[in-house]
Every structure is written in C-alpha cells, then in structure tokens.
Amino acid sequence: MKTIILSIIVSIISISAFAHAPRDISLRYDRKEQTLRIDVEHNVTNIEKHYIKEMYVTINNKALDTIRLRAQSRNNRERVYLSTPKLKNNDVVTVTAICNKTGELTITQKIQLEPVELFGIKVFEPNEFSELFFRFLFNMLVIVILVRFLYYSVSRRKDFLFTYMLISVIVFLMCYMLGNVKIQLGFALGLFAIFGIIRYRTIQLPIKEMTYLFIVIGVSIVNSLADQKVTYTELIFTNFAVVLFTYLLEKVWLLRHESQKRIRYDNIELIKPEKYEELKADLEERTGLIINRVEIENINFLTDSARIFIYYYEKDNQIPGGIHTPTDDND
Hints:
About 40% of the residues lie in helices and about 25% in strands. By secondary structure, the protein is of the alpha+beta class. The chain has three domains: about 20-110, Sandwich (Immunoglobulin-like), CATH 2.60.40; about 120-255, no CATH class; about 260-315. The strands form four sheets. A four-stranded antiparallel sheet has the order 4-3-6-7, with no helix packed on it. The protein has a three-stranded antiparallel sheet with strand order 1-2-5, with no helix packed on it. A three-stranded antiparallel sheet has the order 10-12-11. A hairpin with a 2-residue loop joins β3 and β4. The longest helix has 30 residues, at about 125-155. The protein is rod-shaped, with a radius of gyration of 38 Å.
C-alpha cells in the first residue's frame, strides 16, 4: 500500500516538474488580411507529448472560435492565425490557452489598430485630430470675442477684421503643424519678430491696430504650442485674462473712444498754425462732425491740397453703428 501511495506522489511530482501553464499570450491584428495572430509562449522539450491542446477565442464577449491542436509547432511557443470579422479600435479580444498536461492562461486585450499611412504619413489619427479640432475651435472663439465683439464694435474697420481673423487662422495652424519640430520657443519668437516689422504698403498700421495684431498672433501661438505641461485650466485662464483686460480697456476705462478719418483738404491757406481754429471750424462745417483735434500729414503745393487727420468722439457725434467712411489713398 505504501508503495502505491509513493508511486502516485512521485508521478504527481514528475508531472508538476515537466508540465506547466503557458507563460504569456500576445495578439497582433492585421487590418488588411483581417487575421488575428495568436502567439502562446510555452516552453517544452517534446512538442508531440507536451503542447497547447486548445484555445478559446472570444471578441466582445462573443465566442469566435475554438482551436484544437495535437502537437506544438515550436519548442518555445505556439502560433496560430485566425480569420476574424473586421475589428475596430478598442474591440476586446479574450484568448484562453490550455496545456495538455496541466494549467491554462487567459488574457484580455483591446485591439489598437495601426493608422493607415500614405507615403509614410498617417492618413487619419482620431486622437490627434480631435486635439487639433478642439484647440482650433477654442482659439477661434477667443479671437472672435477679441476681434469681432471688442475691436470691431468700436472701430468698424472691416478690412482689419478680415486681416486679424485670417492671420489668427494661419498662425495657429502653422504653429500647430510645426509644433512637433522641437523649436517651439525660437519659432514663436521668430514669428513675433517677423510680424512685428510688418508694414502694409498702402498705409502704416496705427498703434492700436498693431496692438490688436500682436494680441491675435500671441493668443494663437499660446493656444497652438501649449503642450502637456500646461493644463487646460491655465490655458483657459490665460485666454480669459487677455479677453478681460482688452474688454476693460476698450469698453470701460477707455469708453470715450476717439475715432479718426484721413481726408484730402483743398484750402491750404488755413493750414498755417495761427489759423488752426479757422481750419477746425471749416472742417466741422464741411464734415458735420464735432472735431476734437486736427493733424496735418503732408502738403502738396503742386495741387494746392493737403492730407489731414481729423479726430472726433463717436459718442459726441452720434455716428450710426456700421457707418465707416473709407480712407482716401489715391493721391
């Protein structure tokens, strides 16, 4: 009796020593061929007597197939290819591998499809596109508030409205697309340097319009180049601070906004300094505006005319919203 018990114990020890469960299972899905490759790591010495006998495969908790084997293809692993329906990102695949001696292993893995590429460039990446789309909408929301509702409501300059909106779009997309080149700081400073020396050939930008241009470029760069080290709370606060102070300066502290018009004046006899009050009175009579001050830009004695800037307060003159007298640039 003791001999029988001893033999059973020795047999169990022998089986335990030479039989073991699979160590690991790895999955790889081929989108083009619609096949699932299953690699089961299982080290054995005799592939005909010690092998993976069965594999159970489920996709999203639905049974796909049961694979039965009579031997192992290699000493260190078993590899099988399984035709599957078209899988999508985050589909859950569960594989159970059972050793013919003893033990089994079950793994669950989400499918992560490799993006489609064209000439080595990804055609579509959902996460990256979602980030670009969200950042772009957020940036344009801030720019619309700054330019359309703060700047344009006071200046009524459609030409600058057009310029600011498009510059914001171009700067944002350019910075975002080149943001992975590891030149963020130098690139941003370079953009400020380039746009800081802009001079339109038709007219030099006034200081206020140049300031708005600087704000548009700065906000677009911040929103496009902010990386994972900057939280969305910090990003939102930065944009909110810019909008808030612009609003306070434009609508509260500097509510009495002084507008300007550039006109061509033909009575150069009144441009002398001692006749300033007569010049101002003549301009008020001709334009119908209550003029605050007058500046002479240049004088052309060949045509007996002068370019003059007149400054006035819109509130005092009750200028209807939306009316803007275009600047005369054809001299």
